[in-house]
Specification:
The protein has 415 residues and is α/β, with parallel strands linked by helices. It contains 15 helices and 13 strands. 43% of the residues lie in helices and 15% in strands. Strands 3-9-8-7-6-4-5 form a seven-stranded mixed beta sheet, with helices on both faces. It has a three-stranded mixed beta sheet with strand order 1-2-11. A three-stranded antiparallel beta sheet has the order 10-13-12, covered by helices on one side. α6 (147-155) links the parallel β4 (138-142) and β5 (159-163). The termini are far apart. The structure holds pyridoxal-5'-phosphate.
Length: 415
């Protein structure tokens, strides 16, 4: 009879939701839980965070576009003309003229055959990668690629392997090995971040593109942190290296960083785009952008095309800030971009540095294990075009003062 064993089961069965609290409590004990700060107002050079006025040094809003009057006006106007929402997914009834115009404008900006806009960059990677490679194929990733690439790769039925970070000769080794595999792979897809978000270094995309061409592999670059930053007028990493689209077939990016809004995108040949929107499940099965988002993204492209000064100022500020931190004796790693890590070693020091900077009116978050190696804890700063020289000097003085206080750099503590 079942009754006895049921009673036994019931008496020993655990609360099915207990793990929620247990796992959360464990994160809190290990200090790995996210303590969310609250931004009260726009993402601007000076903003209010948790009720305190601070200088923003950790936003991805590189060019200050998220609060640019042209973007805001375009968003408001689109709400007036098209409403608050799109009403559907794109393949059914949610494909607005604004979405089509945005893709046309983006393709022109990227000098690509065609572009496709996804809801987010995460949706682009997780929706497209598993379609590009499947059973019998191989995906080769840089070991430090973004989590959305990792998840997209996991959703694929392809075999996966990694090469050493930004190391073209290790990629060559992996490709040579793949060539000898038996049975041979049908397709090989190489995927890399363009700019790596934790260190600010740039992928050797020129060498990767060459290797891809030599081995008949497709090359996919995620340029989330390169757009609005690298290349002519902020056109991104493909422009930066002046590469042909025959060698970098998939250029993926996002409107959520330098473009200042939200949305993922892919650019390449029209064959790629026709394939992508017919196959990507994230694109087919998830609602399209509200009109305000599409219109603000169009306005962001307008601003990039008509106001080149934002990208110029971003680089002037980046050079000034990096040099000052280096002169003070900080370890700013191997960054070649406006992402400037201040590497301090252990996570406790990184957290203390961030907290003390916040007291001084500087907002920069610590990045610790497991996002970076245990002994490479850091504050990650992201430079911004909208900062004035006075703002930069304020930030530099703050780093100097707290850096000495915590003995990260030498020298007497200044007042
Ligand atoms: C931010 C980021 C993404 C995700 O983009 P969203 O549009 O914010 O979803 C993807 N890849 C990289 C490298 C990123 O830095």
């Amino acid at each position: 009879m079942y009754t006895g064993s049921c009673m036994y089961l019931a008496s020993t069965m655990r609360n099915p939701t207990l793990f929620l609290k247990e796992e959360y409590d464990q994160l809190v004990r290990q200090e790995l839980d996210w303590k969310l700060r609250i931004l009260q107002g726009p993402s601007a050079p000076w903003c209010i965070v948790d009720g305190k006025k601070v200088l923003m040094l950790c936003s991805n809003n590189y060019l200050g576009l998220s609060n640019h009057p042209k973007l805001k006006e375009a968003a408001v106007e689109a709400i007036r003309t098209h409403g608050a929402g799109s009403g559907s997914v794109r393949p059914i009834a949610g494909n607005m003229d604004l979405h089509m115009e945005l893709e046309k404008r983006l393709a022109k900006f990227k000098e690509a055959g065609a572009s496709l806009v996804y809801q987010t960059g995460f949706a682009a990677n997780s929706g497209l990668i598993p379609q590009l490679a499947g059973k019998g194929d191989l995906i080769i990733s840089d070991e430090l690629n973004h989590g959305s690439i990792i998840d997209g790769t996991r959703l694929s039925h392809a075999e996966r392997t990694v090469y050493k970070h930004a190391d073209a000769s290790d990629l060559r080794r992996v490709l040579d090995e793949a060539e000898k595999a038996s049975p041979s792979y049908n397709k090989i897809l190489i995927i890399t971040d363009g700019v790596f978000s934790m260190d600010g270094d740039i992928a050797p995309l020129d060498e990767i593109a060459e290797l891809g061409a030599e081995h008949g592999a497709m090359v996919y670059v995620d340029d989330a942190h390169g757009e609005g930053v690298l290349g002519e007028g902020g056109r991104g990493i493909v422009s930066h290296f002046k590469l042909g689209r025959d060698k970098v077939q998939v250029e993926m990016g996002t409107f959520s960083k330098a473009f200042g809004v939200v949305g993922g995108h892919v650019s390449g040949s029209s064959d790629l785009i026709n394939f992508a929107y017919n196959k990507s499940r994230t694109w087919l099965l998830s609602g399209s952008h509200p009109p305000a988002v599409a219109a603000a993204c169009i306005a962001a492209i307008d601003v990039l095309e008509k106001e080149p000064e934002h990208v110029q100022r971003l680089w002037e500020n980046t050079r000034y800030f990096k040099k000052a931190l280096e002169d003070l004796g900080f370890n700013i790693g191997n960054s070649k971009t406006p992402i400037t890590p201040v590497i301090v070693g252990d996570s406790g020091t990184a957290k203390k540095l961030s907290a003390r900077l916040f007291d001084e009116g500087i907002f920069a978050l610590p990045i610790v294990f497991p996002m970076v190696a245990k002994d490479k804890a850091r504050i990650r700063t992201i430079m911004n075009a909208a900062l004035t020289k006075e703002d930069l000097d304020f930030a530099i003085r703050g780093f100097e003062k707290i850096g000495r206080e915590l003995q990260i750099i030498s020298g007497a503590v200044t007042a």
